[in-house]
Amino acid sequence: MKKTLKLLVIAICAVLLSSCKTQEKILYFQDVQLNKNEPVVGSRDIRLQPKDQISIIVNSKDPQLAALFNLATSSNQVGSSGGASGQSKISGYTLDDKGEIDFPVLGKIKISGMTKSEVAEHVKTSLMEANLINDPVVTVEFMNLYVTVLGEVSAPGKYMITKDQITLLEALSMAGDLSIYGVRDGIYVIREENGQRITYKTDIRSKNLFASPAYFLKQNDVIYVEPNKIKTKNSRIGSSTSLVFSCMGTFFTVFNLVYSIARDNRSDD
User: Fold this and answer.
1) How far apart, in Å, do the first and last CA atoms of the chain sit?
2) How many domains does the chain have?
3) What pTM value is reported for the model?
């Protein structure tokens, strides 16, 4: 009886230890201190790069005057006859290899390295200093900026950047969060800029994530979530099983063919 009780206690302890180990692998932000103010490290807005596309819209109390500094919009007809409606499409500026755009009246403007708010302020100041418009209101928006999320997430894909900042957590959230098979300390951010590529490895279980250079994302970043050993093993088993069934199917097909030929030969004899 004592031996049985001892084995039962050992089994329960093993289950509890296994449960704790599983939690350590899955839970986010395990070392975060609650109710304590911490400085935000590395906070930054996205800065424009060559080949980025943006829209710049100038408004004023004089709409006709402001129209001189806005690109023409195109209209697309959608729907069928009887229900067709016009849909306007805003034209944008694409930064060239030098990081410049050709702005109406002002000409070439270098905006590479600027944030959205800095571009808006630069255009506004330039218009006023040239006495082209006295009360400009300049609005700048991203048009083709995105990040890509791959691997063990619920909805891998390409996601648009619509605001000044985007974090790794936001990108993972847009992709539906990690699956149960995603490795929490195996999240890679691949970044290309200035003709170079750098890869960061992050751990979402630790608050050190917030200090990582990859926490605040940049346009064109690629995020990859590594699968755990269970998913990798299951994939190998599934692949091996499919191969076995494929070989068995081929074997039985060949066997039936040979058997049919042999039977026909016996019938001819």
Assistant:
1) 76
2) 2
3) 0.71
